[in-house]
Amino acid sequence: MKYIFIIFFSFCGLFFNNGLKAAEKINIKFEEMEIPLTIEQLSKLEKYKDDSTELVDWLKKNGLVRVFELSKFLEFPVFKEEGLNREILRSWIGRKILTELSKSIKVPNDNNGTEIYNTIEILLDQKKEVSTLEIIKALPSDEISLDIDNLILIISSWKNELSMQQELLSKLNKLERTNQNAFKNTEIKSTKDLIKIDKKIYAPHRVKPVEIEIWKSNKINNDKELIIFMPGLGGEINNFKWIGNELARRGWPILFIDHRGSNLESFIEVLEGKETIPGSADFFLYRIKDLDAVLKAHENGEFGLPNNSYILMGHSLGALIALLYEGNKPSYQLEDKCDSALKDFAVTNLSKLLQCQLSEMPFPKKNNTNKASAIIGFNSFGSLLWPKENSTGIKTPTLLIGGTYDLITPLMNEQFRVFSALNNPSNRFLIIEGASHFSPIRINKSYEGNNDVFKISESFIGSEPILVQDLSAKFIVEFLKNIKDQKIPSVVKNQRDLGLDFHLLDLETIKEISEN
Fold this sequence. Notes:
This protein has helices at residues 2-15, 39-43, 54-61, 70-74, 85-90, 92-101, 114-126, 132-138, 148-174, 241-248, 264-271, 280-299, 317-326, 334-341, 351-355, 411-420, 448-451, 465-484, 507-514; strands at residues 25-30, 33-37, 77-80, 105-106, 129-131, 143-147, 194-201, 210-217, 226-230, 254-258, 310-315, 374-378, 398-403, 428-432, 492-497, 500-505. It has 516 residues and is an alpha/beta fold. A ten-stranded mixed beta sheet has the order 7-8-10-9-11-12-13-14-16-15, with helices on both faces. A hairpin with an 8-residue loop joins strand 7 and strand 8.
């Protein structure tokens, strides 16, 4: 305690002039100390680290020099006027982030971030980018507390996540290489033209009908189930026509659902100021009911197919909807888990922000009596919903596909946990090295201005997205053929095809590489 007082007074002597005004006071909480600074001094902290004083030397010797890096961190622009940034700020997700931010930037009598939100809104009316330091300067409060300890914990969690991803690559490279050919079965592509049908399904939960697109070959295959594909949040059917073409030419009829309210068109309307950002009903409730309406139409023979069996497939949120529809209700402890899970702002796993919205939504009962013959998910998530092994209750053969460069739903802490919550010996996880969360999305270059709604830079797309899609298609065909023939798919380690390194792993191997 003696040393804490010495450090406290030393800081005051180092930084302060007499006559500090109350309106300029910022209390810095750091390592059991509370240090009052002016805003000007706070903005210049980094310059002090090169000073030659007893205090600075003591901080360096005890590993506390990071406090001087605070001003650099605070000057980074965290909120922007362009794109979806401002709309996200106004949404449920934004409110959750601001609530967590208010635990680091503490304003008296503001526990939910209302003052911070109002300040950011005012600043965004005046400028295109806003930093944390600018927010602090503009907050209408005589006294503000800045909890560096909490900020450092957040930054540490981000670093730990990135370290885990690097360690995963090392573990994958150490797996003993399998020698057998990854592709034993071959499916011959049809050279005949495909039939493409646009159809509308009327359902009570929608004012306008659910729009779907069906692809199938001229020749009906009685032994092939209908594949139902659901794009992710802000996605559209055009992004996934590559998989429709591959599977339909091999005899599988494939149906794409256009989820109004959370599709590309909806997000363009948000950007144009015509609509507010979608909420939990659009993300989950209406999507689940869309799927249920499609399956009822299929069961009633409205698609002219020889059987009413089906396979579910989706990307990101679309994959989660498949799991929600087929599996158990989410964990009843979801709200408590979310309070803990969002402490790091979910920056290294943005899917947590979507998952936690389910805590505020009544979960609909499943009316469909059938079960999917198989489930295939790209970049899946749901670790907070089903936190334990086998907790989904899903025994359907499942293929999950993900990449080592996924910064939205990371493999280690998200996708692998979802995989362990499933239960079937035929389940397999296809890991493609260098692939990202956006690798399955094919952008139509002639409509790039409309399609690239999230303004995703090439650095986040990952390695060769079209090759990733081609490799994924080969494994999907192989997986479906194995399931149809009731064969357990092989485990494949450290193989290379189409210029990509990949692994097709079972649960046992996933557990092995997940261990510390």
